[in-house]
Design brief:
Blueprint lengths: L1 H7 L1 E2 L2 E2 H32 L14 H15 L3 H13 L11 H7 L5 H7 L12 H8 L9 H11 L3 H12 L2 H4 L4 H11 L3 H12 L2 H4 L4 H11 L3 H12 L2 H8 L2 H25 L3 H5 L5 H20 L10 H27 L6 H7 L3
Antiparallel strand pairs: 1-2
Helix pairs in contact: 2-4, 3-4, 5-7, 17-19
Length: 372
């Protein structure tokens, strides 16, 4: 506890009382230094008075002004910049308006206040809560960068100044974006721009996109036109397109809307024809009776009929085993029996047509085939 009290009574390595003595002594020296700097400015003004009111010089003789001030600076052992600043500051603060307790540095900063009356009044009114002007307070008053930022905007400006180097800016940005509380306060439009920039690289975009597309709430906000473009891009691969299309056409409402498109309907019909042709080709290549059939003078109708029988048998071979240990309801069994009856009638009709060449359908068979 004693050590903490001792530290509280010290500033740096000295006690609070000694610190107060140092401050008092240095303030007197600062006043003296300010008088010296104003004296340099006054003498510089005597050598080269300001060419225009307000301290703004626009003159063809400006080159000769600089030449004179440069010579004066050389002769007294100061830099040209020091003499020039002292001259300008002295021109902005006539002797009656100078405040001895305020440093030359503060006078120089507040000299940029344009209006004379406002400038002269300002130096007598330090910021609220302060007994005297400081360089940071003066810079804050005229809108310049401060050494020790206090307000959020000053801190933001300081960070921007430190992050001029792109490598530094990138590191800072990465660190900040790892803080959820910070990201939550970023404006929506800035988040969008950031994501656009971060995903310019194809590999990054490809890695991020699936994560977004797995989130229904995100997909729900995607405009319809963009959804269409995404699906077009994702289905460029034929295997993916075939799988997706099959799944979509199993949905009656979608299949109905798709078939209302003339081109789509034409493509489906063409696909069915191609599928039938491929089935015939497969039959000729794989069926045991194919060699014998090749020796027959076949008609298109004969091949279509054989293909249809082959397709029916193949389809039944795939579907029926799936009924193992499954009990159908009464309504389902009725529908199946009705369809089986139509199949039997159709098979009888085929046999009659093959044996006799007669393809006429009597009324009873027609009603059966139509499901009546």
């Amino acid at each position: 506890m004693t050590a903490e009290i001792e530290r509280a009574d010290k500033v740096g390595r000295v006690s609070a009382s000694r610190y107060a003595e140092i401050v008092a002594a240095l303030r007197k020296l600062v006043e003296t230094a300010s008088r010296v700097q104003f004296a340099v400015g006054d003498f510089a003004l005597e050598v080269e008075p300001m060419r225009e009111h307000g301290g703004t010089e626009r003159s063809e003789s400006l080159f000769t002004v600089k030449e004179s001030l440069f010579r004066l600076a050389e002769d007294i052992g100061l830099s040209y910049a020091t003499v020039d600043k002292a001259r300008w500051t002295a021109s902005r603060w006539p002797k009656p308006q100078r405040v001895a307790e305020v440093s030359f540095t503060v006078h120089c900063i507040l000299a940029s206040v344009t209006d004379d009356k406002e400038r002269f009044a300002t130096i007598h009114n330090p910021p609220e809560g302060r007994s005297r002007w400081t360089p940071d307070a003066a810079n804050r008053r005229v809108g310049r960068k401060v050494v020790k930022p206090i307000t959020p905007q000053e801190k933001i400006s300081a960070i921007h100044a430190l992050a001029q180097d792109e490598g530094v800016a990138a590191t800072i940005t990465g660190d900040l974006l790892r803080r959820p509380a910070v990201v939550a306060q970023v404006r929506h439009e800035d988040k969008v721009r950031a994501v656009e920039e971060l995903t310019r690289e194809d590999k990054v975009a490809a890695a991020v996109a699936p994560d977004f597309l797995r989130r229904p709430s995100v997909v729900a906000h995607v405009p319809k036109t963009d959804k269409v473009k995404v699906i077009e891009e994702l289905t460029r691969d034929e295997h993916v397109a075939a799988e997706v299309t099959t799944g979509l056409l199993r949905r009656p409402d979608i299949a109905n809307r798709a078939m209302s498109d003339t081109i789509a309907r034409h493509q489906v019909n063409r696909a069915q024809a191609d599928h039938g042709r491929q089935a015939r080709e497969q039959f000729e290549e794989t069926s045991p009776v194919a060699p014998a059939i090749r020796n027959i003078d076949r008609s298109v109708e004969f091949l279509d009929l054989v293909t249809a029988c082959h397709a029916f048998v193949a389809a039944s071979g795939r579907v029926v085993p799936g009924l193992r240990d499954r009990q159908l309801g009464d309504a389902e069994r009725t529908i199946v029996h009705e369809n089986v009856a139509r199949v039997r009638a159709t098979l009888d009709w085929i046999e009659t047509a093959v044996d006799t060449g007669k393809v006429d359908v009597d009324n009873e068979l027609a009603r059966l085939l139509q499901g009546e």
